[in-house]
Amino acid sequence: MIKIKILLVLFISFNVVSKDMVRVDLPYENEDRHYYIYTPNTKETNPIDLVIGLHGYTGTAIGFERETTGGFNKAADDYGFIAVYPQGKFFYQKTFFGNEFISSWNDLAGSKSSGPLGAICLANAFFYAQYKNCGDVGRCAWASCGDDLNFIKIIIDQLKTTKNIKNIYVVGMSNGGMMAQALACEYPELFSGVINVVGMQHLGLSCIPEKPINFIIYGASKDETVPPINIKADDGYLYEPMDKTAKDWSNKFQCKNEKTITNNEFDKIIEKEYFDCLNGVKIISLLNTERFHTWPGIERNTGYCAYPIDEISDYKDIRESCSDIENFWGNKYLLDKLF
């Protein structure tokens, strides 16, 4: 378990960036971090669920809401939960074509170069730009090395002091899905459920919580970026098979039964559910046989909405820089299984 750092927050800045969302600036580890919060129209005295949404590698907080999920705020309205979108640590890498925006989360796997089974990438794997403050982390490391787990924990702790929070959930895409799983492992008592979307953790480093927690892991058969079946991605990095992760969790939580069905309502999705587990939790794996490295309900090659954070500060401008994507079924499909 990570040793939780004690952080004295000197000040928190709240900026209303639209009638719907608020940007909250939060100093953390000597850096300026931030997140966005969306609150549906509900009575403030009523207990309300909180859902943390985590973007993927090179992604953004606004991009997760607008493009990755195709409008997650609408889901917050439909289900009546507060949605929070933290921004991962980022920097700009100079390239031949200009500055490249790099952002990520430290899920305690991507920030390493090796694990119990050896290196997490092949010798000829693509070399990703590394965070300068990480030091010598080895050939394969690509993610932030900051304590992002505690960063998310602090956000939640602060929200609990101002909101009447009932249940807390975390969902994430790709590196955000890896981070969601890592949060479940680090703070299983904090969350009621977790969804990891196309975010298999690296081979030999897929974590399992010490306490039971509801867990959904979603993968796509045609995904070559973070493959759910074949361990080698097209960039030469190695990932834990999705079935093994789900099975390991079910064994840990002593699930007595399982069932598998094929759902053809939208795409052909093989759904495997482990149930009758400790504390009544369920472990669910969802394999979409028709999709690629995307959120369910989103077409290929959409959903990143990358914008230069240091140049755009107005929420209206940010929204206009994103594509207008609408997700007709994917968010509901996942959330119906989570709640």
What does this structure look like?
The protein has 339 residues and is of the alpha/beta class. The chain has one domain: Alpha/Beta hydrolase fold, catalytic domain (Rossmann fold, 3-Layer(aba) Sandwich). The chain contains 7 helices and 15 strands. The protein has helices spanning 61-68, 72-79, 148-162, 175-186, 242-252, 315-321, 330-338; strands spanning 13-16, 21-28, 31-38, 48-54, 81-86, 89-95, 98-104, 114-115, 118-119, 165-173, 193-197, 214-220, 257-263, 269-275, 283-288. It has an 11-stranded mixed sheet with strand order 1-2-3-5-4-10-11-12-15-14-13, sandwiched between helices. The protein is globular. The chain starts with 12 loop residues before the first strand and ends with a helix.
> What does the overall shape look like?
globular
Uncertain residue ranges: 1-19, 311-319
Give me the CATH architecture, please.
Answer: 3-Layer(aba) Sandwich
The major pleated sheet works out as:
11 strands, mixed
Helix content: 10-25%
Helices and strands, in order, run as: EEEEHHEEEEEHEHEEHEEEHH
Spatial strand order of the main sheet: 1-2-3-5-4-10-11-12-15-14-13
Structural class: alpha/beta
Structure summary, number of beta strands: 15
How many distinct folded domains?
A: 1
Query: pLDDT average, as an integer?
Result: 89
Look up the CATH topology: Rossmann fold
| Relative strand content | 25-35%
What is the tally of helical segments? 7
N- and C-termini, Cα separation: 27 Å
Radius of gyration: 19 Å
Q: For the record, what CATH class applies?
A: Alpha Beta
CATH superfamily caption: Alpha/Beta hydrolase fold, catalytic domain
